[in-house]
């Protein structure tokens, strides 16, 4: 048996740790080049008004097409982008591109809105609020057409600077959303005082909508909580007709999910703005 912090242990783990460190460094190096090399792209997932089933907005979702690695998912590269500080440049690229795109689509569909994910590190960066307003002005997209999505953990981990930034963004007309709601650990008292406009109920609650009475009751009370707080509520991750029917029955006004529309390349969006969404309940 190896001693507790003895050399035996180090030897056992070293090859794996070494490999992980190399992976990390090579991924970071590739990521550093990706932006300039034009390897990033955006997909757009429609936000659908559930009563009339029409597209009212889109959420921009970042994609990395690496020539060496193939498609790398955000969950694989975003943590590295955040740690290395690259997220700032990447985030500005996402906002500028999606804002220009949505400004163009609004000529066909005035009122179309844009949701953009923002990492916690970005939100509290000095100059972030000014950068956002400058980028939107340059793109010709009004600030009130844009909702920035933040996760609960971001808002809870360092609430004071986060709330300060939220208030400044709101003063400039932006809307704010809590993404993946219910997976973090916000206290209700804290939630009550957060300057946000929208709550996106995590798909963990909707995926369970298959549906026992208890799951329905839980989802129902989350939706009610949102409404009591005066927030717009979006049900994330609607994957089938039964789940759609359930959230509709519970009075949720907005939804997103593979059953409504998948994240799509930009070229696929304009047809959806002409006609009602292509989806039909089975
Ligand atoms: P998110 O903001 O909660 O986005 C929803 C994720 O769920 C997306 O994954 C989307 O493709 C996926 N999704 C949508 N509908 C369904 C469904 O019905 N079922 C299932 N199982 N999944 C569904 P994606 O694109 O891989 O993005 C993952 C996360 O990466 C996002 O979660 C967001 O937190 C982050 N992210 C994506 N783009 C950006 C970005 O531009 N900036 C930042 N900071 N984060 C981003
Ligand atoms: Mg999101
Ligand atoms: Mg989400
Ligand atoms: Mg998320």
UniProtKB/TrEMBL annotation:
Domain named EAL: residues: 24-277
Coiled coil location: none
Top-level division of the source organism's lineage: Bacteria
Native source organism of the sequence: Dactylosporangium vinaceum
Protein name as catalogued: Bifunctional diguanylate cyclase/phosphodiesterase
Parent-protein start and end of this portion: 411 to 692 of 692
């Amino acid at each position: 048996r190896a001693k507790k912090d003895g050399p035996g242990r180090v030897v056992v783990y070293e090859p794996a740790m070494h490999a992980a460190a190399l992976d990390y460094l090579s991924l970071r190096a590739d990521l550093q080049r990706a932006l300039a090399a034009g390897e990033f792209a955006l997909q757009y997932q429609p936000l659908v008004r559930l009563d009339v089933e029409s597209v009212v907005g889109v959420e921009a979702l970042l994609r990395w097409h690496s020539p060496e690695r193939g498609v790398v998912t955000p969950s694989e590269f975003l943590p590295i982008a955040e740690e290395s500080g690259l997220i700032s440049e990447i985030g500005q690229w996402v906002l500028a591109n999606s804002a220009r795109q949505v400004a163009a689509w609004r000529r066909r569909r005035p009122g179309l809105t844009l949701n953009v994910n923002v990492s916690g590190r970005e939100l509290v960066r000095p100059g972030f609020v000014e950068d956002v307003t400058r980028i939107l002005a340059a793109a010709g997209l009004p600030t009130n057409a844009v909702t920035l999505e933040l996760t609960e953990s971001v808002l809870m981990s360092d609430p004071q600077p986060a709330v300060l930034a939220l208030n400044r963004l709101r003063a400039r007309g932006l809307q704010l959303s809590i993404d993946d709601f219910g997976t973090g650990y916000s206290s209700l008292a804290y939630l009550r005082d957060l300057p946000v406009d929208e709550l996106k109920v995590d798909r963990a609650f909707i995926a369970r909508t298959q549906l026992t009475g208890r799951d329905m009751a839980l989802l129902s009370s989350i939706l009610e909580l949102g409404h009591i707080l005066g927030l717009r509520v979006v049900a994330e991750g609607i994957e089938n007709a039964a789940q759609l029917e359930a959230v509709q029955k519970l009075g949720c006004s907005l939804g997103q999910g593979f059953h409504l529309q998948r994240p799509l390349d930009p070229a696929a969006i304009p047809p959806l703005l002409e006609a009602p969404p292509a989806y039909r309940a089975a």
